Amino acid sequence: MSIKVAISQKPPVLLDLQASLQRAVECVEEAAASGARLLMFPEAYLPGYPTWIWRLKPGADMALGNQLHALLRENAVNISGGDLAPLCQAAADHQMVLVVGMNERDAEFSGTTLYNTLVVIGDDGTILNRHRKLLPTNPERMVWGMGDASGLQVVETPLGRIGCLICWENYMPLARFALYAQNIDLYLAPTWDCGDTWLASMNHIAREGGCWVLSTATALQGSDIPDSFPGRDELFDPQEWINPGDAVVVKPFGGVVAGPLHQRAEILYADIEPEAARQARKSLDVAGHYGRPDLFRLEVDCQPKPPIHFSRPAK
After folding, report:
1. Superfamily of domain 3-280
2. Given 4, 88, 246, 297, which residue has the most CB atoms within 10 angstroms?
3. d(CA 84, CA 236)
4. Catalytic-residue membership of 167
5. pTM: predicted TM-score of the whole model, two decimal places
């Protein structure tokens, strides 16, 4: 059965959650009009990847960095508070599976720590999985906390079994294997990375895992940074491409079938057959006949790691 998948690399409204949610809903409507059954957004799409962290001068820009982080926290997603309701409703209205990257605020415990989070929303509007990035990369560690493995799972959808890793998590061989070993069909890799090296990695994963691979960053120009962004003129050139996007779809066992969509704030489409993933693993199934479990063993602790446990008297 062939299905149409879509990848949006359109930019959000940086540091504005409500405006970014509205843009996301508009993307859902556009993709639905084109017949897509699945739509993926980039890493940290809501309300935008904190690209300024790669440009701030250590020490000298601390005040500006603190100001930007405060705005990011104020506009981060509170999942339990219902911030994703517009997207959940759009998914249900259009019977579309959504994969959405976001800055998530820990509303349950500290109320302050942020996570680089990815959610899978089913075509009935329910949240099927929440995955927090296991290890933020370099200066990202000043923005996001480390996630646990409770979201390191592949979920069943009418379109096939979907698993996701975020950006450089895709360079963690054991994290990849944890998804391969869950009978994965569609491997989604929202990212901030791009270019030929990243594309080569996506081809490698498609070959190694025998799965469809979808990936994208945000296609972002300096002119997309809002006028209200603190320090905009010092940090960004309006004419520069901060990130080209490079949305791509790779078939099982390797080979690009759509993209890369370079320096274009658009949606990429591709027709795929999920069953092709299982057919591709006939000769190389790294989690099956090619795995040698008699020699190698991986254990993954998928228990949530809350910072505190309360023992309360029964009422």
Report:
1. Carbon-nitrogen hydrolase (3.60.110.10)
2. 246
3. 30
4. yes
5. 0.95
Q: At what angle do helices 195-209 and 173-180 cross, to 10 degrees?
A: 40
Check if 29 is active-site.
Answer: no
Q: Round to whole Å and give the CA distance between 251 and 212.
A: 5
Q: Which of 88, 164, 167, 194 is catalytic?
A: 167
User: Rounded to whole angstroms, how far apart are CA atoms 93 and 144?
Assistant: 32
256 close to 203: Cβ distance less than 8 angstroms: yes
| Contact in structure between 42 and 248 (CB atoms under 8 Å) | no
Rounded to the nearest 10 degrees, how much is the dihedral formed by the CA atoms of 105, 106, 107, 109?
-160
How far, rounded to the nearest angstrom, does the alpha carbon of residue 299 sit from its chain's CA centroid? 24
Burial of 307 (0-12, 13-18, 19+ CB in 10 A): exposed
Query: Among this protein's residues, is 169 annotated catalytic?
Result: no
Each residue's pLDDT tens digit, 268-313: 999 999 999 999 999 999 999 999 999 999 999 999 999 888 888 8
Q: How does pLDDT run across 232-268, given as a tens digit for each residue?
A: 999 999 999 999 999 999 999 999 999 999 999 999 9
